[in-house]
Design brief:
three-stranded antiparallel β-sheet, 19% helix, 7 strands, alpha+beta, two-stranded antiparallel sheet
Amino acid sequence: KKQLQSIVQEAAKAKVPVVIAGDTNMRVAEDKVAESQKHGVALFDFWKLAGSDFRTKYTWNTRNELAKGGFFNQYYGPNTREYVTRYDRIYTTASQMDVESLCLIANKPVGTSKKHFLSDHFGMATTFRLQWKKLLKK
């Protein structure tokens, strides 16, 4: 939580829009810290700006879906805890941002195995358009 507060405070100092992205390991409760104005600027969540599509929500899934014809991300071995969550985020300080697309990448196994993934987290890819004219009018 303190790291996130520090990032938000630094982003508040920027004179241009800031994009913060990555493996944040954030919990849902920490969204409030990022999205409030408490630390000088609110961050806007790309996933929410893109329409909160359930298919792109979870960037962590270690549930065993093999019996259903799916996959099993055993990045941490066969005894991994099984759950899904959204640990990763892409944020911006720009309220005038059009998120044109947001998708998960590396969320399928590599090769013929249904258990071998590139990472424990799925990646996110996005295309966005910053509305400079609206920002400059402020």
